[in-house]
Write a structure and sequence with these properties.
1 helix; 47 residues; single chain; 64% helix
């Protein structure tokens, strides 16, 4: 029917741990890079 985020039977449980950790690391690195780019842009703008 639809996507139920509270159900425990989703595809994420079937993925290996290393793959889930790699995705988490990738998302974390991307967010840190975006935050750094925004901070650098603000620094240049306010200088």
């Amino acid at each position: 029917m639809g996507f139920d985020p509270l159900s425990g039977s989703d595809e994420a449980q079937d993925k290996p741990l290393w793959q889930r950790l790699a995705w988490m690391l990738l998302i974390w690195l991307a967010s840190v890079m975006v935050l750094g780019a925004v901070a650098y842009g603000l620094r240049l703008w306010l200088k």
